[in-house]
Each structure stands twice: as C-alpha cells, then as structure tokens.
Amino acid sequence: MIPEIKTGKERRKVRVEMDWEQIEPGMPGLILLSHGMASIGVLDSVQLIYSRQKNMAAVTLDTGDAPQEMYAQIEKLYQAFQGNCIFFVDFNGGTPCNQLRIFSMKNGIQIFGALGFSVPMILSAVESRRSGADKAEIVRAAMLEGNEGIQELYPEMAEEDDES
C-alpha cells in the first residue's frame, strides 16, 4: 500500500476536547484556546486533579488549521453554553485570540476571560465556579492565582548562592 503524501496545503479541522453529553445548564463553561496542544494539556492536568469536569473544553490550533475553523468552534461552544462561558486564551495577538475578538465584535457581545493561562489558574477557576462565583469573580480569582502562582522555585537556595 502506498502511503498518503501530505502537501501541507490541506486545511484541517481545529481539535476540540469536550464531553458534549456533560453540559450542565447554568454552570459557566470554561473554554481554553491555544496554539498546539497547550489547552488540552492543561485540561488533562485539571481532570487528573479534579476528575472529569462538566462544562470544560479545550480547543487547539495547529499548523495548517484554518482560522475560520477556530471561529466556528468558538461560536459552537458559545452556543452550547448559551453564552454563559469564560475563555482563557494562550496569548494576545495570536489566531485564537484574534478569532475570539472577531467573534465578540461581530456579535456585539462581551467576552469574559483572560489572556494567558496555567494549570493553577484553571484550577482556581474550577474552584471559584464550584463556590458559585459569577463569571467576573471567576476570572479575577484565576488571574490572581496566575499572578501569585509564578514564583522562584527554590528562593532559599538563591539566597545561599548570593551569600557565597
């Protein structure tokens, strides 16, 4: 059998990880958007710690994926959660972020979320959501965790090196 040769010109579909049968009405959806597998990696880590979570999705964009497909998945998830969702995007200015901005402007809707995400941030978002926080409070808690969560690994060792 002759292997299929890929030319790199084919358009692929953006990958979405979500348990579509586990949508719980009224619970804000947490949607992670990223280049590559970062969003799926964070989702997997959160589910390892807290088990499977309802109303969580990871959307990836890879080389050759059409930006319009990212837009279509954002729209599909927004509708699935009936607009009750929070977006966490890997960084400002990239295709996932730009497609989310286009979606927001085209539909005249306010998007709740944050630019940049980490496992501690998303764990905080899950905890805040469990406690009944609203979308703005969930975003604030996640961002606070993100800011406070970046620390020097072993500060006492750095102090010892400074004294030498």
TrEMBL record:
Pfam families: EIIA-man (PF03610)
Lineage top rank: taxon: Bacteria
Annotated Gene Ontology cellular component terms: membrane
Record key words, sorted: Transferase
GO molecular function, one term: transferase activity
Gene Ontology biological process terms from the UniProt entry: phosphoenolpyruvate-dependent sugar phosphotransferase system
Keyword Transferase in record: yes
PTS EIIA type-4 domain sequence ranges: 27-150
Keyword Membrane: no
Designated name of the protein: PTS EIIA type-4 domain-containing protein
